[in-house]
Amino acid sequence: MQQIFNFILKNSNRLLFLLLLGISLSLTIQSHSYHRSRYISSANVFTGFVYEKINNVKEYLNLREQNNQLANENAQLKKLLFNNTDSLTAGNALPKPAGMENVKVYNAKVINNTFNSKENYLTLLGGEKDGIKPDMGVVNSLGVVGMIEKTSNGYSTVQSVLNIKSKINAKIKKSNHFGSLTWNGKNVGFAQLIDVPRLASVRKGDTIVTGGRSEIFPENIPIGTIDKVYIDKATNYYTLNVRLFNDMTNLGHVYVIENVKKQEIQKLEEETKNE
Amino acid sequence: MNSTFITNSLRFVVLLAIQVVIFNNIDFLGFINPYPYILFIILYPVNGSKAGLLVASFFLGLVMDMFSNSGGVHAAACVTLAYLRPTFFKFSFGVSYEYQTVKITDKLTPERFSFILIAVVTHHLVLYLLEIFRFNFIWDILLRTLLSTIFTLLLCIIIIYLIKPSKR
After folding, report:
1. pLDDT in tens, A111-137
2. Reduced to 3 states, what is the DSSP secondary structure of residue B83?
3. Which of A3, A82, A217, B40 could disulfide-link A137, Cβ–Cβ 3.0 to 4.6 Å?
4. ipTM of the prediction
């Protein structure tokens, strides 16, 4: 017994070091391994508050671009509204009564954005009290931004498209061939669409949009255009280099999308699997 | 509560604040960020409590992780640096470093430079190894370590010699 105490006393620093290293390594490994498992994230009151204050200053630097983007989006929406003169479809342009819509949209503001590491995250001003929950889609007027990973009362973190862990169902707009949108960790302007069947006719410049297969994003949200086509030697599928419509290094306001039918779909799939 | 304790706590807070507000936003060439917040570990008194340094650097790293959504990589890198610090002292200043009053905030000698260099390289290597965590990015890890080390080293030396303690 005496010897054990002596050992602990003599090596107390080493043991403390091993303990702390163990904690930090397990936090690291956990954050790399599973989806939505990190305990330490910037979606908490302290870091959220600091980022909000920093963003209050930085916001002024790109107001002009944000304004342009907003005006373009307004023009687009006005075009939809004015061109809808057909009496048969006129009703569809108007909002459905509350409780009937498939998709809910919340407004949020990006207060922190990283794009220099392999696993990039954004921090949003807007959390549970605004209706934002984990696993919702995040888009802006140009295209897909990412998925909500963690939320707190007033803030939330987003796993960006530029994250080697992210995988989004996407398709070629013209031919409806599906693939998965991933990122290879190299260039912030490009993502990769993998596992596209060789049957698909792909051409440089074709548009890539989200596919309807995931419960997170609605169908036909723009992602980017094909920049280069490779054939993956191991699997014999196409790998497409996609030039993103979004400039991921410069994001302002974003929309968080909630699929209201998601729980119903998940429940149904769960039941089918169990049979 | 002696003055060393207060100086160190102040340094902890100020370095973290500067790191989060300024240096995390530099993104030189799109991916190089300097991390001069490790000056806290480098400048910690030589004969100060080792357990205290370990715990302090763990929390220093943990706050950084919180801000950069990186799991526990900064904490791991900081704890490693704090633990290996006496070894680096021995390497740079000789065996009897504890009996000399080593102060980093003096003239820049080759010994001091080598100490800061080794400390920064160790921290950054552990940091990027754990952050990227994949073998197929090994060249990326080494490149980032090299470039960020140069950047951090320059900033550390500039900070140390610009903001000397006022007593002369």
Report:
1. 888 888 888 888 888 888 888 888 888
2. helix
3. A217
4. 0.80
